[in-house]
Amino acid sequence: MTLTTIQPAIESVQQSLDQMIKTTNALSEETIRWKPSEEEWSIMEILCHVLEAVPYWIGEINYLKANPGAEWGRNHLQQARLDAVAAADQRSVEEIVNELTRLKDQVGEELGSLDSDTLAAEAPSRNPNFGTKPISFIVNHLIVEHASKHFGQIQRNLSKLD
């Protein structure tokens, strides 16, 4: 990934966030908080996860910029990740939509500051499935694809409504 290709990554994340905002704004609070099953997240839980995950991965990139070659990442049991989803019932829809809007700006500023050398810098992941990866992997896989997949998850939830 080079500087000329970071802009499409930024735009993709911002588009996913825009789709989440637009979809959420068109739904009732009941629908936003509805869980398709005990094993599945509500739309609110998905949004709370996205609001925790994207800044987490941006933070990991910033950590690697300051500490080249350091270990990065987490597993699905990381407490902040779990807490964000668990707190969904205490959050207002308006608050979440406002935070998603601010996150779009943060994505543009933070990812837009990455140069090609930073994007190419490699470091080992805590996740043994990833091994050693460049920072561009975090951008593409853990931010861009992650945001897109969670918008898809929201669409799947909606398809399960009666």
Q: Which helices and strands occur, and which strands form pairs?
A:
Blueprint (H helix, E strand, L loop, with lengths): L2 H23 L3 H5 L9 H24 L12 H8 L6 H20 L3 H5 L1 E3 L7 E3 H25 L3
Antiparallel strand pairs: 1-2
Helix pairs in contact: 1-5, 1-7, 3-4, 3-5, 3-7
Q: What is the mean pLDDT?
A: 92
Our estimate of the beta-strand percent is under 5%
Query: Which H/E pattern describes the elements?
Result: HHHHHHEEH
The major pleated sheet works out as:
2 strands, antiparallel
Radius of gyration: 16 Å
Outline: globular
Number of strands: 2
Helix percent band: 55-70%
Low-confidence stretches: none
How many helices does DSSP assign?
7
* Order of neighbouring strands in the sheet with most strands: 1-2
**How far apart are the first and last residues' alpha carbons, in Å?**
43 Å
Q: Which features characterize this protein?
A:
single chain; 162 residues; mainly alpha; two-stranded antiparallel ribbon; 2 strands; globular
Structure description:
The chain is mainly alpha-helical and 162 residues long. The protein has seven helices and two strands. The protein has a two-stranded antiparallel ribbon with strand order 1-2.
